[in-house]
Amino acid sequence: MGVDQTYLEQLNSNFDLGIKLVQKKIRKLEEEIKACERYISHLEKNIQSYDDEVNQLKDKCKVILSELKKCQDHLELKEEALVIQDNRIIQLEDTIDKLKSRIQELSKSSNKHSEEEQENMAIPDILINIATALDRVEAYIDGDTSFNPKNTLNGIRISLTTARELMQRHAQDAINMQGQLITAHGLLNNTYGQINNLMNDMANVRNECLRRAQLLTLAYNNEANERRRWWQIAQDRQTNGQRIALRKQNRINVLVGEKTILQLINQRRKAEADLAEFNRAFVFNKYQKWKGRELNSRQIILNLQNNPPGNMATIQDVMHTLSPLFAQLPNYDGQEPPDVYYQKLRNINEMARPLAVAAFNAAARCQVMINKMTGRFAPVPANDPYAAGNPAINTEPLFLNWLREKYREVMVGTNRSAIFALVNEKFLETDTPDSYEKRIKPLVQAMPDADALPYLFNQLPSDLEMRVRIANPATVIAFFTDLRNIWHESAGKRIQAHTIAPVNYIAQPQKDDFKIRLARDLAYTGIGTDDATLENFIYEELKKRLGGQTAHVRKSPFTPRSAYATKKVVRKVMPKASAKQTRHCSACGKAGHTKINCPRLKRTKKVNYVYQNEEEDPEDSEEEYIEEYIEDSEEEEVEEDDEYIDADESRNCYAVKKKWYEVEYQ
Fold this sequence. Notes:
- InterPro entries: Znf_CCHC, Znf_CCHC_sf.
- By secondary structure, this protein is mainly alpha-helical.
- Helices cover 63% and strands 4% of the residues.
- Among the domains are: 90-226; 315-489, no CATH class.
């Protein structure tokens, strides 16, 4: 038995999607880890920048301290220079005093003559002597000859020469003195200019010293304030830096913890990915093994059939293989729900899949199904008039959609009794979605979805109805699917609602056309359609075709009975101790035995439409007997389900024979 390729591909795709999802989660976690690492590095850079800024501030403080020290040294040098200037000013003042004293001495010396100069400069005496000499000369002229005039003249001449020399000397001395005075005045003026300049320089130096002192004081105060401010900023930044560092350290610790958790999650995801890859490899290995086995089995089949690759099966072989199976299945004329009949056809088509015939494609399988339609369902149109766009009916799903809509169109006018039965149905406390679907689906099969859904909603308890209405199913199939999902989501809890006893509805008998359709399938060409004529023809024709004496175990299919007879549920309340049931024979209705050992009937074996007279195994029984035990604190409820099967339902060789079984709910 080979593994379905579609299933393996779906399994591989699921594994690939799971691996991709895990890899996507891993990539997302890795990106988050990288983002955390980038944030940590950013915080470290911020801390480093704060440290650099603090170091820069410290360097600035050091530079300012060095400049302040230089200013202090410069101020000390200025003070020393100021002292030197003061000493120089004192020296200049001493020089000025000396010069003043020298001037005074010179002035005194100019007014005071020495003895030699007094002798040499006795000009008035000389003049007097000259005047006396001139008087004697005049007297000599007048006749006085008592003296020698030559001597007098020589004396006058000598006096004049002496006076002239003295005058020349005095003039030269005056010139020299005037030059000395001019020189002294120049020196004095220079000295006064130097004194004034020195005084100005001293005033300027003092002003500069005062200004420098003020500037140094202001600089000192500013530096002190700045140092105090920067110290406060440094303290604040140090405190803030410590706080920020503490917060960052805490954040780093948190991020490290998250990183550790993410690494653990990443490791777990990798382990899950490795496990998924291992499972995928394991399943793929199994698939390879099954594929090899399938190939071997096919080769064995080919070898057994002596069918070399050149003589592979064709579409004729496929139809030759499937024709007996399709012949056993009656043509479809609405005798059963379309889904059931479609599933039978699909099962027959799937039997040809191992032959791998390319000609037996989707269109060929669909055509085989179309050929099984008869009566009101034939002929099948080329395009689906019920679907949007009228697509061509060339695949099995499209054929199923057309068959469902056609079944509704054909059966909706003759199923009023099903509507009345549907109105009286409820979702019982003991129901499951599967049992409820099995009981209700035949009633709504021929009804449009828009008409059937309101009845189905009203049959549910309030909590289930609300949740199913929220799901908003569009079709009856979607309704049963949502109901099953919601019921399983509630862990299969029983619906706490008042159980309403079902009303046993007896369908009104309608004209049953199964006899006519069966007679037509058996090539009936008569005119009469009464029951007696049709029964005689059918019995005779079956006897001719099948041969042997026939004995129908089930009730006659020609009795008027509704095609939509429902299951009758009879609820009995019994004491807990009396859980044993008394079984009755389904054939004669008497107690003490069952249909298997009923004396009124022979044991027969089911073949196609009739039962041949052969020994039947006791296990091959068609009757179904269900015992349901629901334990309660005081009593036990036992339900007996008598399923009424439509007499018009076709029987075939695939029918599963029913067996006795018991179901007990604890």
